[in-house]
Design brief:
It is built from nine helices and 20 strands. By secondary structure, the chain is α+β, with helices and mostly antiparallel strands. The strands form six sheets. A six-stranded mixed beta sheet has the order 4-3-2-1-5-6, sandwiched between helices. A four-stranded mixed beta sheet has the order 8-9-12-20, with helices on one face. A three-stranded antiparallel beta sheet has the order 7-10-11. The two termini are 43 Å apart.
Amino acid sequence: MINTKKLSFLKYDAAYISDPSNLFYFTNYKNEDARIIITRNENLYISDQRVKEEFESICPNFRFIDIGDGGGYVQKSLDCLEKLKIKRIGYENLSIINHEFIMLKNYKLVPISQEMQLIRSIKEEYELSCIEYAQNITDLVFLKALDSIKVGISEIELESFINSQIYLNGGTLAFDTIVAFGKNTSKPHAHPTNNVLRERDVITIDFGAKYKGYCSDMTRSIAVGKPEDDYISLYQLVLEAQKTALEKLKAGMSGAECDYLARNYFSKFNMEVFFTHSLGHSLGIDIHEKPSLSRFYNGLIDSNVITSVEPGLYLPNRFGVRIEDIVVFREDGVRNLTKSPKELIIL
């Protein structure tokens, strides 16, 4: 579980935590029917008797507060804040529910969402190990998926196979699996349909496992039978753009500088217009976290931040290619957690 002392308390007396992902972050316990109050001296977990025994066995450094018969989590939190004589509260300004914000109106409220994003972005060793294990599951499932791909299978059938294999290998779904055949690969976030795989079709698969609450993410583009030459050329452009970025990424760069590495490579071939998203996103408990490798993000990427590196090119109504790995940023470069092959696979 995460050390709650990471919170600065420079501008507030207690942190009020209601966001489900942040609840999990501080406790390693999945339960949305709860609130947390973190102070300099103690940590309170406010929930009900259904979870008391299990929670206390997992999180001994929190004092469990039962909500009792009435009032709910928020009212019980207010009661605790009053007893603790708290005046300034750090609150999750980007995610708090409106009625909770109104109930806290009598306190001095200090926004802490950006602080939480920064704290969560720098992964501890336990978090790194969970994400790496989740990626190991993802790599294993990819190999199994390759064996299951046959002409006549539908996008939904392949999606279902991938999902089942994630569970069979000890994970859960990090996000909704993307499977696209043929022209559907030109849509970066295509939803699987009954579209059936044909000879010489191309495929995009984007999926990830979650292990002990932490996500992995990977995209691979493959072909069934020899694809047309334009697809092979497009694939090589994307692969070289990713290699170029991976060779130069390191902690201390801004998100915009990271994105530029791939975007500039595409511009040399007048293809940047077909690169319609950012180079990558952070991930952890959530599949999309901050910071991002985006031309619009000028913040710096710290050591032990994990992001995807996923350049892609998409030709409307023809096909698209995306290759995605996840990496750990270090001062001298990045460590790639993804082991699946990246050279064009032709089945």
